Amino acid sequence: MATAVSTPNIAFIKYWGNRHSDWRLPAADSLSMTLDYPTVEVSIEPADVFSVHSEKELSTNEIGRFKKHLELTKKYLAQKGYKLKAKSYKLTIHSHIPPAIGLASSAAVFSAVAKAYAALIEEQDIRLTDEQISILARLGSGSAARSIMGGFVALQTTNYSLQTDDIDSAIAIQIAPASHWPLYDIVVCPSLKEKEHGSTEGHHLAHTSPHYAERLRQMPRRQQECIDAILQRDFEKLQRVAEEDALDLHKVAETSTPSLKYLTEDTHRITREIIKLRKREHLAALYTMDAGPTVHLICTEDAVKTVKEFAHAQKDCTVFETKVGSGATILTDRHRDPPQQEVSL
Ligand code: DP6
């Protein structure tokens, strides 16, 4: 049995739309900060029949997604010449994340699942690289690839020049570790109700928006500006590009057919108020929203006290206080000898 723990991440440059949906090959690169909280723990053990157990009752579709993920994992591993020992597995999930509130629960879950499969493979003295494990995570949820590593992580298309759509043509790469820039994410959730349209649906519909082609044209510039902002620890630059990208994603979602409206009046009120507050107090704080009404307030150490006060003052909102974190880890393997064999992509 292998047990892995992982956390969500918050994207500054957002993944929206695929060029190959079965394999979750994103249409453009993205970039996020891995969070240190809330955690998800996943244990995987060999079993005769595939099953998934969690506190939350899972729908047939959800179980099907984990099953398909195992099939794709086997497919990718076979391509590398590797094989999981058992035919099937039992997955046990303990999540501390409220589902479907724009807090990337699927990212935390599938990064933990991928890390646990990698630990099972390691029993055969085969050590997958983090980039390879990120591919396993991506096959379950695109953004999960980025939670494999800590700090600031890009999900990048490889082989641009060849324009290939191979199963391994997008991997996560760490831009900088958590120690590089101690940023916080104070998460303000106006509602804990499950959202109606998941991001998987959003990815499918992205191309129906008249603004999507322009979004794809802007993505390489935004990705580079975001990488530069992080490497230079330039908060103003990060704020400009992250807010531009978040608003653009929601413009695309709202103008797709059917229209996906993730943001609510509460979201808009919170963003308007944080803009006023940061002007007044010269705060290094930015806002961003994933596929839900939740507002992520990213800020520096100097700003965090004021941002927390602001977040807790929001009526009827649930607040999570998080910080840049160190990515998915294995619990059971901590005391094992290092494996012999390193493999490359
Ligand atoms: C808006 O990774 O959740 O959060 O691959 O279908 O699970 P699936 O999609 P997912 O999409 C994330 C969308 C986003 C932006 C981001 O995190 O990059």
Quick overview of this protein structure:
With 345 residues, the chain is an alpha+beta fold.
What topology does this entry show?
Elements lengths: L1 E5 L2 E5 L4 E3 L4 E2 L3 E5 L5 E8 L3 E4 L5 H21 L7 E8 L9 H18 L3 E2 L2 H9 L13 E6 L12 E7 L7 E6 L9 H7 L6 H20 L3 H20 L10 H17 L3 E4 L6 E5 L4 H9 L5 E6 L5 E2 L10 E2 L3
Parallel strand pairs: 7-8, 9-17
Antiparallel strand pairs: 1-6, 1-16, 2-5, 3-4, 5-10, 6-8, 10-11, 12-14, 12-15, 13-14
Bound molecules: ligand DP6.
The site of ligand DP6 has 16 residues, from helix 2 and helix 4.
**SSE class:** alpha+beta
Helix content: 25-40%
CATH class: Alpha Beta
Q: State the low-pLDDT regions, or none.
A: 333-345
Measured distance between first and last alpha carbons? 26 Å
Our count of domains comes out at: 1
H-E string: EEEEEEEHEHEHEEEHHHHEEHEEE
Which percent range describes the beta-strand content? 15-25%
Which small molecules are bound? ligand DP6
Question: What do these coordinates show?
Answer:
The chain is α+β, with helices and mostly antiparallel strands and 345 residues long. 35% of the residues lie in helices and 23% in strands. A five-stranded mixed beta sheet has the order 7-8-6-1-16. It is globular. The protein binds ligand DP6. Ligand DP6 is lined by residues 11, 14-15, 24, 30, 104, 106-107, 141-143, 199-200, 203, 290-291.
